[in-house]
Amino acid sequence: xxxxxxxxxxxxxxxxxxxxxFAGRDAAAxxxxxxxxxxxxxxxxxxxxGRTAIEGFIRQGFEHGIARLALETVTLEVLDGSAxxxxxxxxxxxxxxxxxxxxxxxxxxxxxxxxxxxxDIMSSNRTPQA
Length: 130
Fold this sequence. Notes:
The chain is α+β, with helices and mostly antiparallel strands. The chain has a single domain, classed as Roll (Nuclear Transport Factor 2, Chain: A). Helices cover 28% and strands 46% of the residues. The chain has three helices and six strands, in the order ααββαββββ. It has helices at 6-23, 27-31, 51-63; strands at residues 34-41, 48-49, 66-78, 82-93, 98-111, 114-124. It has a six-stranded mixed β-sheet, covered by helices on one side. The longest helix has 18 residues, at 6-23.
């Protein structure tokens, strides 16, 4: 990621808000990081479209033990009012057990001066369990 670009800094702050929402187990705050018609695409499930559906999926993750999220931006390319980000994620349980890790692509949109996720697709690096 290039430094010094205010759009890139704003996207980094949006990622930080998402991480904080996970730490606080606040599914509504996490979902607010997406556009109103945002789409979350995860392995082995249909897409979650809109903040309400995304919030429900995240809340279910908390119920299944997710307590902490880490994101590492690998590449970030800012365009005119949109951006794309490639990165790595890890999620842990409250006891520090790693639950999953993998990669993601996010398409960002600038909405009213705020950078929000319009499309978020993630892929686990773990082998699926039978």
